[in-house]
């Protein structure tokens, strides 16, 4: 077995704000079949500490970025875990990233530098814990791991950084360099500097042995100024070490045949009971039109402002919208203020409701301006809930759009729109309403969608092969 330490700031089902958690939570089991033994290092947030049953103290860490900490080993939800129990950094109520004022916790750079430092020490065999052959780092929160490894360990094990979203870069003022353990010589453009600040993500992009992102299209997009968010130059310089490996979904959690939150079903007809229940739950009237759902963080990325502008096309075509989301206060207020009997909005985060929505909806709308992979369209495919997606990133890689050619070959699984504007989205929603009135075609698309292989299979194999190559080359 290859031993891999996965370092992540969230991991389903223990702690989740978005798709990163789903991926970090699903990979260990998916990789096990491919000869990988994966242990996940997580911060000791209250939810993680509560889930961690009987744990073993592996090490005591004095002076861990401003306080004493312990490294614990244990299991929860079928995951092998190492947990950094550092109350001064992680024992906080509310969001794992944001304080009560809605802004980043001021010490986020130190919180995740601590996680990264401990990961590097584990990998160097310094904490007496299990020692991995490779470290797999996720997003900026683990971005400093490759840096600490390269600058600290005598014989560093190889590291991979996976970019789930380039929009989050982990910036810190230069004045914090000493506290973060970054050498002066590395505060340059070729090192961890980003426009006069430190960037933990850039540290990972520069120092990791290999980079991956979560879809092949996003891997290409990241190298362009339009999508690279200032780091496209670094990504171009590392193009030989960058691969796009598409996310899968955990089919033990997200399959209509086994989902414990819904009226289970095997064929699209089985959706009807879920649709009826969902309409009742949201207070939406029974109509002949498509019931569209959205489950999303409400941020600029997700393009929900475009959806709001395009809604007349959906409603005019007889469609309905049920939305679950939270985030930007302006967007939340705008959706909450909508006064239409065929639009229903739930603000907040609700895992169980998200399952009921994906099962009960006829279609799921994902109008993102950019989307590294996106998981809700994959859930939609698996549940026969036809995805209507923007042509970008992983959305482009996972949905086969309806065109005359794909319809003739009977392979279409959804609708795509481009350019990413309210007008193009409105046109797609009108097409959706028309398609919905052609039951034969509609159920063909649903069945194609349900047959789409959305699990981890080939992607887990790709990660395992990559790990093996890097370990061999080290
Ligand atoms: P991102 O990670 O950018 O938010 P993804 O599509 O990769 O986008 O993953 C989002 C994950 O978070 C999905 O599992 C989705 O169901 C879930 N999710 C997003 N918003 C909510 C919400 N308000 N309630 C419940 N689940 C949500
Ligand atoms: C990020 C991206 C999303 C991706 C998820 C998991 O949050 O925004 O597209 O699916 O990470 O990789």
Explain this structure to me?
- The protein has 474 residues and is an alpha/beta fold.
- The chain folds into 2 domains: 2-248 and 457-473, Rossmann fold (3-Layer(aba) Sandwich), CATH 3.40.50; 268-451, Rossmann fold.
- The protein is built from 20 helices and 18 strands.
- The protein has helices at residues 19-32, 46-51, 87-90, 108-123, 144-152, 177-180, 200-207, 216-221, 225-228, 232-237, 271-282, 304-316, 329-336, 351-360, 376-382, 393-398, 404-408, 422-436, 439-451, 457-473, and strands at residues 2-7, 36-43, 56-61, 69-76, 79-85, 134-138, 159-163, 171-173, 193-194, 197-199, 210-213, 242-244, 291-298, 320-327, 343-347, 363-366, 386-390, 415-417.
- Strands 3-4-5-2-1-6-7-11-12 form a 9-stranded mixed beta sheet, with helices on both faces. Strands 15-14-13-16-17-18 form a 6-stranded parallel beta sheet, with helices on both faces. A 3-stranded antiparallel beta sheet has the order 8-10-9.
- Strand 1, helix 1 (19-32) and strand 2 form a beta-alpha-beta unit.
- Helix 4 (108-123) crosses helix 5, helix 11 packs across helix 14 and helix 12 (304-316) runs parallel beside helix 18.
- The model has no long low-confidence stretch (mean pLDDT 97).
- The site of alpha-D-glucopyranose has 14 residues, from helix 1.
Would you summarize the structure shown here?
This protein is an alpha/beta fold. It has helices spanning 19-32, 46-51, 87-90, 108-123, 144-152, 177-180, 200-207, 216-221, 225-228, 232-237, 271-282, 304-316, 329-336, 351-360, 376-382, 393-398, 404-408, 422-436, 439-451, 457-473; strands at residues 2-7, 36-43, 56-61, 69-76, 79-85, 134-138, 159-163, 171-173, 193-194, 197-199, 210-213, 242-244, 291-298, 320-327, 343-347, 363-366, 386-390, 415-417. The chain has two domains: 2-248 and 457-473, 3-Layer(aba) Sandwich (Rossmann fold), CATH 3.40.50.2000; 268-451, 3-Layer(aba) Sandwich (Rossmann fold).
